[in-house]
Amino acid sequence: MQLRGCLLPTAFNNIVGLKPTRGLVSTRGVVPACRSLDCVSVFALSSADALAVLRVLAGYDPEDPYSRPDASVIGLSAVTPPASFRFGIPSELEFFGDGEAERLFHAALRRIETLGGTPIEIDFAPYRETARLLYDGPWLAERFHSLAPLLARDPDALHPVVRAVVEPGARFTAAECFAAQHRLQALIQATRRDWAAMDLLVTPTAGTCYTRAAIDEEPIRRNADLGYYTNFVNLMDLSALAVPAGFTGSGLPFGVSLVAPPFREGFLCAVGHALHAAQGLTVGATCRRLPVGPAAVPADGTGGAATGGRPYGAPAGPAAMPADGTAVRLCVCGSHMSGLPLNGELLRLGARFLGPAHTAAHYRLYCLDSFAPPRPGLLRQEPGAAIEVEVWELPIAAFGALVAGIPAPLAIGRVKLEGGDEVTGFLSEAHATEGARDITAHGGWRGYLAAGGGP
User: Fold this and answer.
1) Is 353 helix (H, G, I), strand (E, B) or coil?
2) Which residue, 26, 15, 35, 104, is CA-closest to 59?
3) How far apart (Å, rounded) are the C-alpha atoms in residues 455 and 443?
4) Among candidates 430, 331, 340, 437, which has minimal Cα distance to 388?
5) What is the pTM of this model?
6) N or C: which terminal CB in the chain sees fewer CB atoms within 10 Å?
7) Can you name the CATH fold of 2-137+172-278?
8) How remote is the C-alpha of 170 from its chain's centroid?
């Protein structure tokens, strides 16, 4: 668990952070920062796990003056992602010169669209102004009030930077505090038209990730930069979920935040889990991939039928075909892979991600320029190589619907995997590869795209 609803550590550690609605979880016993704004958040490997923990934590506490009666039953039902939804994007984005973060954010937006999201540009100015109130406005007085006894008794007990941030809170007058309260309410009112047009707001969790040295040079300014997309959430009484969204070229994690009105935690976790799973990322510092499935969490917290009773984030295990033959294992090697443009087709058909794999070393991969944009063509051919693929499982009826839409010269056949297992998979007719670019050396379609190939 994380105190005070901070989402930033999730973006820097490839994990999920669920910041619930204020008052949903008791803050009794929490060392306060801004007592009227403080939240207890949950850090987890998946949205489903975070929601399961929140369902245990949530509840009315009559000894917490900020606890909300009967709030715990609202918004915590596990739901499946809606077929369509509207998501807001700030019309002006700030990445503090970090081009890698900007690239990853726009890639995440494209993935959200494949999940059924329709983007809507919004004016971020009211949210940005609200964020500034947290450290530049009289809410510093509340922080100062929390720490005043310690400052009076032992001012050197605080880190010098924390002390420099908090001590100016003593200068605010009561009139200034009321003026800021009135301004905050006006800013909230100005955003109501946004929430009438969108179901959630999508932002970077942080516009960049600073080094420790950069933080040490200008700690207060860098702290403000890092809170650019998060500091408004508690002030505006919103709920939020931060999910991983890939890695920079230097290997640093990046994350996005999904923000919604209060008591929408179940909805946020449903969308967040679908987005997280669609990217095919490992979870946390583990080597495990997040299985595809709804963020529904049954009472026993096992992760539900979508994972066969396994906790979300646990290894998928052998990709076994159900005994009744109602599902098909499908090997994909191109744009249907996690996070790529056609992956949404599999998700909408109810497919479940079983795991990454490689073919046996008897295949070659070609770029078929006859498609716009180009697609890969997998062909069993010697000499061959092991090609990166993914294995999914989908209902037999959904498999039929998928096959009906496959354009020639692509075809469905049997693909042999490393270890000797055979599954149904996408292949290319041999004639289509004559004269096509052989991209086998890249190891797979992702490797080819990463090298600058593709559309």
Assistant:
1) strand
2) 26
3) 18
4) 331
5) 0.64
6) C
7) Amidase signature (AS) enzymes (3.90.1300)
8) 38
